[in-house]
């Protein structure tokens, strides 16, 4: 007898299943939340490759459920499948965590361990995906239908709770905990690994309470065999048979009419699924492209709270928990009062439109974000900006062009980098500078695709120049970059927060270093020969690159802060509308799609349609992989492309939905029962006729 939770009809075993699902989802989404930044920051991959690998992994996670369903239904059963594949899952997490430890091997070793870990995780999470929820449903007796329905609601809540907490916590473990001299990815992956171990232990702990159904054979294999036989039989036959109006009817020689009719019903729904991967292509970019976008935005909410770029994904899980009851209890009833027939397919079309609007919003945000980015110079060119440290205006001329038409004032913050043509991989350029009516030359060697700052200063001999190579790429974590240019003869030592800078004397520049985003009103300054009291640098903001020029004014060192690369001035709050639109689209598309798949499938074909639904997610990630690696578009153009594609697909899906006729599988079951009874009567009549004929023959003999 099944043990019940005290005073209810809920089996005690579901407590272990719900806790297992919470821990497993924490494990999966926690690891995935920091995955893109791990590729970019730790492995050093470019954003396109990082996006492609992220979506290849996501796609694999949704291809493997078919394998898990085959193993569970045909051989091991759900319980053993969950146990064995959870062990594979844990091993994958451990391997992934070890690959994030800098002291373990070289970069190639880290890549190999990371890829092996991700493959094992994909087989683990995908393999148990079709088993856990179904195993939970198996725990209920047939008469406890309402309790089973409430269990699935609790189960869904545990998924979102695990997702919400993990996308908040793991980015904190990554960024706020420092290990091995940088962000602690080993810990950010290690904690999800520990949660997966807990998930496995909790599930095993309830083994004595579970109701286990033996493997019943996989209907998916039977469907594939029936389709294969029909195609083969039709191919071999050269004659047209008017009784066989559908190509599946050619399987009637071996398979029952009921199975053939059920497959026809399923295929009609699967045809509707063909446009659906495009929705998932947009939806799953929250963890890749949208996270990379957030990295180039202002992440500060006031002076105390700074959100991390990979934490924004938690908005989706949070909004799901808010939107589901709002849509069910408020929006759908209000739309119904307007006498609008809100069918499942209409909801799904609306959800697709909302997702397209979300990417339209992401495009507008990206256009503003790009304005703060300095694009590298193309081949055969370099970037150049000029600083004037002479006490008066200077005019600068470069041969063959007029990059700086206006005079440059003393300590004037350069407005932007100019592109200097080199006509090759490198070139020695003679630059003319005019100061107080006197013209001199500055000759420097420039290399293509490099950014430079050229500092002019006056001496008794005239105008001199110093060339410094610049860092224009924003820091992956949004930290500001800082360097100092020292006009004094003596070296100066400075301490900015926890970072130390040594700036040689006599017009020298220090290397760029990252510092935390903060106000710096009292930077420690030490000089051997001059007064060097604490310096006020003010706010060093997200993503900016600064050059601080140290001059002597009234025997005191004075800092002049210049902004080489603009700070991230687009606030992260501008991402909220795109998350709201996408989550609203998910509620209308994803949840409705699951319900539609369930309602339109015969009882023994529901797993087939669920497998088809999961495959749409997998193919959606394949689309992103192809576009990320093959299109080579600017990010805002890529967002606009996805928005346009989904709008086009939603129109196609609307036409397909218009011609779709809803069915009631329960009514079909009754028809099948009648047909089955009629077939039995016909068979019995034929048997009786044969027996009567045989008796007649015996009498005549």
What's the name of the CATH homologous superfamily of the largest domain? MFS general substrate transporter like domains
Work out the number of β strands: 21
Percentage of β-strand residues: 15-25%
Count of structural domains:
5
The CATH class of the largest domain is: Mainly Alpha
Number of helices: 17
Average predicted local confidence, pLDDT: 86
Spatial gap, N to C terminus: 63 Å
Largest beta-sheet characterization: 5 strands, mixed
CATH fold assignment of the largest domain:
Growth Hormone, Chain: A
Walk me through this protein's architecture:
One of its GO terms (biological process) is protein transport. The protein is of the alpha+beta class and 701 residues long. It has five domains: 11-217, Growth Hormone, Chain: A (Up-down Bundle); 219-268; 275-372 and 569-671, Growth Hormone, Chain: A (Up-down Bundle); 375-470, Immunoglobulin-like; 476-567, Immunoglobulin-like. Helix content is 53%, strand content 16%. The chain contains 17 helices and 21 strands. It has helices spanning 13-33, 35-42, 47-63, 65-99, 107-138, 145-175, 185-205, 219-236, 257-273, 277-283, 289-294, 314-337, 344-370, 576-599, 606-630, 635-658, 665-700; strands spanning 178-179, 182-183, 300-301, 305-306, 381-388, 394-397, 418-421, 426-435, 438-447, 451-459, 462-469, 481-486, 492-496, 499-503, 508-509, 513-514, 518-520, 524-527, 538-540, 545-553, 556-565. The strands form seven sheets. Strands 12, 15, 16, 20 and 21 form a five-stranded mixed beta sheet that branches. The protein has a four-stranded mixed beta sheet with strand order 7-5-10-11, with no helix packed on it. Strands 6-8-9 form a three-stranded antiparallel beta sheet, with no helix packed on it. A hairpin with a 2-residue loop joins strand 1 and strand 2 (182-183). The longest helix is centred in the C-terminal third of the chain and has 36 residues, at 665-700. The two termini are 63 Å apart. The model is unreliable at 695-701 (pLDDT under 50).
């Amino acid at each position: 007898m099944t043990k019940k939770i005290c005073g209810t009809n809920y089996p005690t075993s579901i407590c272990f299943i719900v806790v297992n699902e919470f821990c497993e989802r924490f494990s999966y989404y926690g690891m995935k939340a920091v995955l893109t930044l791990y590729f970019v920051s730790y492995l050093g991959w470019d954003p396109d490759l990082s996006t492609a690998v992220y979506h290849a992994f996501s796609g694999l996670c949704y291809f493997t459920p078919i394998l898990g369903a085959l193993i569970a239904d045909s051989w091991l059963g759900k319980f053993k499948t969950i146990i064995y594949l959870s062990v594979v899952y844990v091993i994958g997490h451990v391997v992934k965590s070890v690959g994030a430890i800098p002291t373990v091997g070289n970069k190639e070793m880290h890549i190999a361990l990371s890829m092996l870990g991700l493959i094992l995780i994909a087989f683990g999470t995908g393999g148990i995906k079709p088993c856990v929820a179904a195993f939970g449903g198996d725990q209920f007796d047939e008469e406890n239908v309402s309790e089973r329905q409430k269990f699935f609601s609790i189960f869904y809540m545990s998924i979102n709770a695990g997702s919400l907490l993990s996308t908040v916590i793991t980015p904190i473990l990554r960024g706020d905990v420092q290990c091995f001299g940088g962000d602690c990815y080993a810990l950010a992956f290690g904690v999800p690994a520990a949660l997966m171990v807990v998930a496995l232990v909790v599930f095993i702990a309830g083994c004595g309470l579970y109701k286990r159904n033996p493997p019943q054979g996989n209907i998916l294999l039977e469907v594939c065999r029936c389709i294969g036989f029909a195609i083969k039989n039709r191919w071999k036959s050269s004659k047209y048979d008017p009784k066989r109006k559908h190509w599946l009817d050619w399987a009637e020689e071996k398979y029952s009419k009921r199975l053939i009719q059920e497959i026809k019903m399923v295929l009609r729904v699967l045809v509707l699924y063909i446009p659906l991967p495009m929705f998932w292509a947009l939806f799953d970019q929250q963890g890749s492209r949208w996270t990379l976008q957030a990295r180039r935005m202002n992440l500060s909410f006031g002076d105390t709270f700074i959100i991390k770029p990979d934490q924004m994904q938690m908005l989706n899980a949070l909004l799901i928990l808010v939107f589901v009851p709002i849509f069910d209890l408020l929006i759908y009833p209000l739309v119904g009062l307007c006498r609008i027939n809100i069918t499942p397919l209409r909801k799904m079309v609306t959800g697709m439109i909302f997702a397209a609007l979300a990417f339209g919003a992401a495009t507008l945000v990206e256009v503003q974000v790009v304005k703060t980015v300095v694009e590298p110079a193309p081949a055969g060119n370099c970037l150049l900006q000029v600083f004037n440290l002479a006490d008066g205006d200077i005019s600068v001329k470069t041969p063959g062009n007029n990059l700086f038409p206006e005079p440059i004032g003393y300590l004037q913050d350069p407005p932007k980098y100019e592109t200097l043509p080199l006509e090759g991989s490198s070139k020695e350029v003679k630059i003319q500078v005019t100061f107080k009516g006197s013209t001199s030359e500055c000759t420097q060697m420039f290399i293509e695709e490099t950014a430079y700052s050229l500092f002019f200063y006056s001496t008794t001999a005239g105008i001199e120049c110093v060339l410094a190579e610049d860092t224009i790429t924003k820091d992956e974590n949004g930290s500001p970059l800082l360097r100092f240019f020292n006009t004094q003869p003596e070296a100066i030592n400075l301490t900015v927060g926890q970072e130390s800078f040594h700036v040689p004397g006599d017009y020298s520049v220090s290397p760029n270093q990252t510092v935390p985003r903060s106000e710096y009103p009292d930077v420690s300054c030490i000089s051997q020969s001059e007064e060097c009291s604490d310096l006020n640098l003010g706010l060093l903001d997200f993503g900016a690159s600064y050059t601080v020029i140290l001059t002597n004014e009234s025997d005191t060192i004075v800092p002049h802060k210049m902004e080489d690369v603009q700070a991230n001035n687009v606030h992260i709050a501008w991402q909220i509308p795109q998350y709201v639109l996408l989550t609203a689209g998910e509620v209308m598309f994803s949840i409705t799609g699951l319900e539609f798949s369930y309602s339109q499938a015969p009882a023994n074909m529901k797993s087939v349609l669920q497998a088809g639904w999961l495959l749409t997610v997998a193919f959606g990630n394949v689309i992103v992989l192809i576009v990320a690696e093959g299109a080579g578009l600017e990010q805002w153009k890529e967002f606009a492309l996805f928005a346009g594609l989904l709008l086009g697909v939603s129109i196609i899906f609307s036409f397909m939905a218009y011609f779709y006729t809803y069915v009631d599988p329960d009514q079909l079951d009754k028809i099948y029962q009648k047909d089955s009874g009629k077939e039995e009567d016909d068979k019995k009549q034929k048997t009786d006729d044969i027996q009567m004929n045989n008796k007649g023959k015996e009498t005549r003999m």
